[in-house]
Amino acid sequence: MTIPLKRSQLVALMLIPLLSSLLLFTPAAELFTGKQQLSALLIMAGMVLFATGALPEFVSALVVLVLAMLLSLAPAEVVFSGLTSTACWLIFSGLVIGIAIAETGLAQRVSNRFSRYLDSSYARLITGIVLMGVLLGFVMPSSVGRVVLFIPIALAIAEHCGFAKGSNGQHGVVLAAAFGCHLPTFAILPANIPNMIMIGSAESIHGWTPMFAEYLLLHFPVLGALKAVLLILIILKLYPDTPQRATPISRNGGFSFRESRLMLIMLTTLGFWLTDSVHHISAAWIGLAAATLLLLPGVGMVSPKSFNEKVNISSILVVAGLLGIASLINYSQVSQVVGERVLNWLPLEPGRDAVNFFSLSLAAMLIGVVATLAGVPATLTPLAEQISQMTGFSLEAVLMTQVFGFSTVVFTYQSVPLMMAMPLAGVSIGHAARLCLILAVLTVVVLLPLDYLWWQALGWI
User: Fold this and answer.
1) Among 34, 64, 91, 163, which is most buried by a count of CB atoms within 10 Å?
2) Where are its TM segments located (predicted)?
């Protein structure tokens, strides 16, 4: 008896051979040598599997990791670097903190407070959640921290509004929280890691550091505010639903002892996250310390039973696989090969401002696909002076074109916060993948031309 293939599996079966043929039997084959070509093929196949959802996500992760080892494409410390990365332990910490927020009732209390203002309509609910996420970007510089704190609250809001697990409404609320506290905040200077990499490398290599207000004025109106509006409209279209106003849980008294204790732990954790530039302790180890404290008998608020039932190991395997792909990209130098070739292929010429702007922005986005978001400033910043001479743009303008690239997420594996948010919420990464693709296309078609006009109006080009 044959088992019929799902549509996603049929798509993957068609795409993988097609893209492999293009990589092997076109001039693109000359770009890579030996194991580089095998690495490129595996990376491409892994991207297709994750993008289509042809296999369960943790199985796709294991397929990539196992084949990378069997083909000896990289050492074990590279292939399995995701399991030792700070991102992996941040996810573990986030899962534990999320369980504590839910089980103490703190998430329900916060959701009750906000839901009464948002649940009158679905559009108002999604808009309010996205807006809350963007506002968090101004006060909390770590997108990972924003995800860890906001996702449990968003889940409680979804429950309060009557959205069952797996419903359109729950997916819409989770995606609004995850994307809202991440993508528009790239337009806020210290809010995400790629921003800080760009600033640090620009300062060390070129001696220039953008000011907060200067950066905000240039990027936030289009890549922040308008992208948030676009995000809201897409979610409302893809995940329509109607909130059912629920009777709030009676919380007339003050915080319970367990809630107060959790608040103290969370505020202390947040304080350490916000001051990491002073004590230089990684956010992952701060989060792990908080998670350990929450698990201690008699001190914490997460029982062994809850831990065993609700900490999903498959989500950690998914992130390990995606980070393994990113490490393989860097180890095999696929990103460097693509970056250099892209620069040579670009039609850059002084006086052609529109062509130069679109070319640099799209090139940064493409490099983000093969080198992840953090790889965009790492790849392009050293080349900024050369690009400035090729385009006639100022050095500062060339550096700022990177922001479009690392703020446009085409595939979820490019962004650690998005990879964290979906497992924390118990939502398939496939939903985030679909939203990423649609938002990326509309960002290029709608926001990129508007961004160019805004730059012109401000006199940057």
Assistant:
1) 91
2) 38-55, 89-110, 122-141, 173-197, 217-239, 260-275, 281-299, 311-334, 354-380, 392-412, 432-455
